[in-house]
Amino acid sequence: MRNKVAGTVLIAGSLYYLLAEAISATFFKAFLMNTYIFHTISELGIPNGNSPLFWMMNSGFILIGITLLFGSFYKFKDYIVKTKLIFYIFTVITSLGVIIVGLIHGGNPLTSGYHTLGAVMAILGGNILLVLISRSMAKFEKYQLITLILGIVGLIAFWVLFFNMGSIYMPVFERLSVYTLILWCFLTGIFVVNSNI
């Protein structure tokens, strides 16, 4: 029963995030493709005329943070057999980071520092978490390999993002580094639902 509850929450949370971003991007004051290529995810959450559905994007941030916390502490922790304390720490860092991004939007000089801190906690912390998870389970099989690959791809994308903040394609690298965690939540939901542990 716990498997199905945790797995369903992880799947639903990741799908809601993608849907919230897609709908927010659709109503953003730019062509949809341009929004995904030239505008950051955080821009979709800024309450101004460019993003009339900013509240939906921010709800996606907050919900995926809660989803990760719940799914991990309610059930997924049972699959971690090594470095459990570090797993807990990085799960909390990542989850709180995403929630901060949803609660404190960018674009405001007074609060942008907190927003940036939340983004780094979520993106860097989240992809480190994936690498850690892949090496902290009892076996290293297909699921663990996919988790490791996602974490490495996310870290590389974050690295490229960090050194190309001025690039017009910076939002592409941002999304690559964020989507690894979202995809992992979805795949983990399926993994947990189908697991016997």
Structural summary, described in words:
There is one protein chain. This protein is mainly α. It has one domain. 74% of the residues lie in helices and 0% in strands. It starts with a helix and ends with a helix.
Percent in helix: over 70%
Order of helices and strands: HHHHHHHH
Report the biggest beta sheet as strand number plus sense, adding barrel if it closes: none
Rg measurement, Å = 16 Å
Task: Report the average pLDDT across residues.
Answer: 95
Straight-line distance between termini: 11 Å
Number of helices: 8
- Estimate the strand proportion: under 5%
Q: How many domains, as an integer?
A: 1
The stretches of 5 or more residues where confidence is low (pLDDT under 50) are none
- SS class: mainly alpha
Number of strands: 0
Basic shape: globular
SSE blueprint:
Blueprint: H1 2-26, H2 32-38, H3 41-44, H4 54-74, H5 84-103, H6 112-134, H7 142-162, H8 170-193
Helix pairs in contact: 1-4, 1-8, 4-5, 5-6, 6-7, 6-8, 7-8
